[in-house]
Design goal:
The chain is an alpha+beta fold. It contains 17 helices and 34 strands. 29% of the residues lie in helices and 27% in strands.
């Protein structure tokens, strides 16, 4: 069921047509108080690129000639209750209650087609007497003339015949935008008003309050930025006869290279919007029928944050485009690109809702990459992570632990058809690192810090840029990740050796005999053993340390990523024992970042703490990552400099309030791996752990803040291979839990398990016959 809740009135709609090189069609972002629109090519700037324009639909209200609501401040002064009851990648809704006039406004924005934004607007009153409402339908536009290659000098705006449409265009050559309204109910025809042309929404409000506002000239521009700001407004007046009557309007904003094209798109959208909306509804229903939601006594911000995270993941997965023939992970929605680390973590978080899609995304990245190291690239095949000596780079095995993520998906599903398709490219990826990134003594190195994912980290010494060569540094986390990855490959090869000697029809896996698969497994195990030994040799002076081969000295720096040997299973127990205090108080990352700021580092720290036998500490760390992130994602106030709530961000900014550390979402809006809280909650709090297909371990460990006796925490449906799980954890007391697990398969009666245990106590569940 598509979630309905008291969501924050901020967020994004997905534009599946947007890509960075081949079709920078723009992102769709909400705008206060009741708006939505394009930012082209994306929000703000990206590296050295300036934006071209933003174009938003927005809605203002005039009620009974005695109340005017245009700006966000107007709505705040009248104590209007504003939220979003529907917050998916396909449909973004506003609810606005105007208490002084008993009026409810409901607006649902959706993308009709690439170049037409639609909105269904509904007005209902509970007042006994007649209510007269004027809707001020605005097109707010900001144009940056400095990014144009056309013959232009300004903007013009005017109404079109009929009074319900208006056009805003670039003079004398450039795009044309048409916005307007059409009635959808059988009530008295709405009355169009005279179009109002101002610079800003604030000027519109002043004009409607009687101030003398001069319309902008064609060439008028902001004196500081040179940007040309315009607001073109169409008033539309209608009456609500009494309580329960609903009036409905269709609002559309169309863009095109000419008036002819924009007008044609507007008319086609007016005729076809219902078909488009039904398709968006079907997509949402199909996803949320299988995607997990939180219920019971979870904090409300967690319940809603869990939704924001999954909707961000849906947006980050891009449709086939350019050289890519399958779905792919764009890393973030603003300027999508292929990066293995982000793709792996995004697929891991997405897999609890859409495991088949997560598998396909990973296959696209592994099997359609032009080189074995999976270079970071755009959809057109251009590379965007090249070291300062010209080496084409992709992210390393330690950043996001891509093989670990793949293995978790496989352990849940047991999908050997998928594994056979994945195996050759995964093996080639690790072999590439062994062949191209070993120094003269056999230690793994990075070409540059970009390749490590830890851009310009202080671990690697002085650097001009992330492309500076650092091949003299032997990083301990890289050695540990090779031990982990090789052990996974050995396990996969062993499993594939159990299959028939010949590959299945249509398989791209190598056609190996059982003996050859066994030899493959043995070779990978030798690599795993070699790098486990190498990792343990880097234990110096009570810490896992990087080594500078050029200066022949061990690093004095302590970094959160130095806990990777524990996460990767490459540390000895004696070493783990000596790191207990560091696990309880993890060090910073890269010379200043708090340990949970960056999702891949948080995965390392939390996973290492859990692997070291400190599940309660891991749960508290995971809880802080989740609680702080979701609290800010669900905020109801918006400051432009702080970024938009309602969408997952790139990283967390550490803020101290006295002795209290808080992790505040920051960085690029619409960044997939920020949704790693989905994985942390299901794995480290509810305790669902993959063993092998048909089998899992449940080891609940709720944080202390949630252990209120009698509280019930539910999550489901959770996709676990071909099985759907529903999990309920009830707090018995400070030391004990009661857990109920239901597993369902198609055409089979559900199976149930229920037991009482101590926090952190594990129970092995056999979901299917062994």
């Amino acid at each position: 069921m598509v979630p309905r809740d008291d969501f924050t009135p901020y967020g994004y709609l997905d534009n599946p047509f947007h890509s960075w090189k081949l079709n920078p069609s723009g992102v769709l972002r909400s705008r206060p108080p009741l708006g939505m629109g394009w930012h082209v090519p994306n929000l703000g700037s990206y590296v050295r690129n300036q934006f071209q324009y933003s174009a938003h639909l927005n809605i203002g209200l005039g009620i009974d000639d005695d109340l005017l609501l245009i700006t966000p401040q107007d709505f705040q002064r009248q104590s209007c209750a504003l939220n979003s009851p529907l917050h998916t990648k396909n449909r973004f809704a506003y609810n606005c209650i105007v208490p002084s006039h008993n009026l409810l406004l409901h607006a649902v924005y959706f993308l009709v087609e690439e170049h037409v934004l639609g909105c269904l607007l509904s007005l209902v009153t509970t007042r006994e007497s007649k209510l007269r409402v004027t809707c001020y339908i605005q097109h707010e536009h900001i144009h940056n003339p400095f990014t144009s290659r056309l013959w232009e000098h300004g903007l013009y705006g005017r109404a079109l015949p009929g009074g319900n449409l208006a056009m805003l265009g670039i003079a004398s050559e450039g795009d044309v935008f048409i916005h307007g309204w059409a009635a959808l109910d059988e009530g008295p025809a709405p009355q169009p008003g005279e179009a109002i042309y101002t610079v800003s929404q604030a000027e519109l409000a002043a004009s409607l309050r009687g101030a003398a506002v001069v319309p902008p000239t064609v060439t008028q521009a902001d004196p500081e930025t040179g940007w040309q700001v315009r607001t073109l407004t169409l008033p539309c007046t209608l009456e609500l006869a009494g309580p329960g009557e609903e009036r409905r309007l269709l609002l559309l904003l169309a863009r095109g290279v000419s008036l002819d094209e924009s007008y044609r798109r507007w008319r086609e959208a007016q005729e076809g919007f219902q078909t488009a909306l039904r398709e968006r509804e079907r997509e949402d229903e199909a996803f949320w029928t299988r995607a997990p939601q939180l219920s019971g006594d979870w904090p409300a911000t967690w319940r809603r944050g869990f939704i924001y995270d999954q909707e961000t993941l849906r947006m980050v997965v891009r449709p086939p485009c350019g050289l890519l023939k399958g779905p792919w992970d764009g890393m973030q929605i603003q300027a999508p690109r292929l990066v293995l680390a982000e793709a792996a973590l995004d697929a891991l978080a997405l897999s609890y809702a859409a495991p088949a899609l997560a598998e396909e995304v990973l296959l696209t990245h592994f099997t359609q990459a032009p080189h074995a190291n999976l270079p970071c690239m755009r959809e057109d095949g251009s590379y965007n992570m090249v070291a300062d000596d010209g080496q084409i780079c992709g992210t390393a095995p330690e950043w996001g632990y891509p093989l670990y993520c793949c293995d978790l998906l496989f352990r849940r599903s047991g999908n050997r058809t998928w594994l056979r398709r994945l195996y050759p490219a995964a093996a080639a990826y690790l072999r590439w690192w062994l062949e191209h990134r070993r120094d003269a003594e056999g230690w793994l190195v990075y070409a540059c810090s970009w390749e490590s994912g830890q851009d310009v980290s202080s671990r690697f010494g002085p650097q001009q840029t992330g492309g500076t060569l650092i091949q003299h540094v032997r990083p301990v986390d890289l050695q540990a990740s090779m031990a982990q990855g090789a052990a996974i490959m050995a396990r996969w090869a062993t499993l594939l050796a159990q299959e028939e000697d010949e590959a299945q029809p249509g398989s791209v896996a190598p056609s190996l005999s059982r003996a050859e698969w066994q030899a493959e497994a043995a070779w990978w195990q030798r690599i795993a053993d070699e790098f486990t030994v190498k990792t343990r040799r880097m234990w110096q002076y009570g810490w896992f340390r990087d080594y500078d081969a050029r200066n022949q000295q061990w690093s004095s720096e302590r970094d959160a990523m130095h806990l990777a040997p524990i996460f990767c299973g490459a540390a000895g127990w004696g070493q783990i024992e000596q790191l207990q205090e560091a696990l309880r108080q993890p060090p910073s990352h890269s010379g200043g970042w708090a340990p949970l700021c960056w999702p891949p580092v948080a995965l390392t720290v939390i996973g290492a703490t859990d692997a070291a036998g400190l599940p309660e500490v891991a749960a508290e760390l995971a809880s802080q990552f989740i609680a702080d992130g979701y609290r800010h994602l669900d905020q109801r106030s918006f400051r432009p400099e702080a970024g938009l709530p309602g969408v997952t961000r790139e990283y967390r900014q550490a803020r101290w309030s006295g002795a209290t550390l808080e992790y505040v979402p920051a960085g690029i809006e619409g960044y997939g791996w920020g949704a790693l809280g989905v994985h942390f909650l299901l794995r480290y709090l509810l305790g669902l752990r993959e063993e092998e297909a048909g089998q899992l371990t449940v080891r609940p460990m709720l944080p202390q803040s949630l252990r209120r006796p009698g509280s019930r925490y539910q999550a489901g449906p959770i996709q676990w291979g071909g099985i759907t799980l529903q999990a309920t954890c009830t707090v018995q007391d400070a030391d004990h839990y009661r857990f109920h697990l239901r597993a369902s398969e198609p055409d089979q009666p559900p199976a149930d398990w229920e037991w009482v245990g101590r926090w952190g106590e594990a129970r092995l569940i056999q979901l299917t016959p062994s």
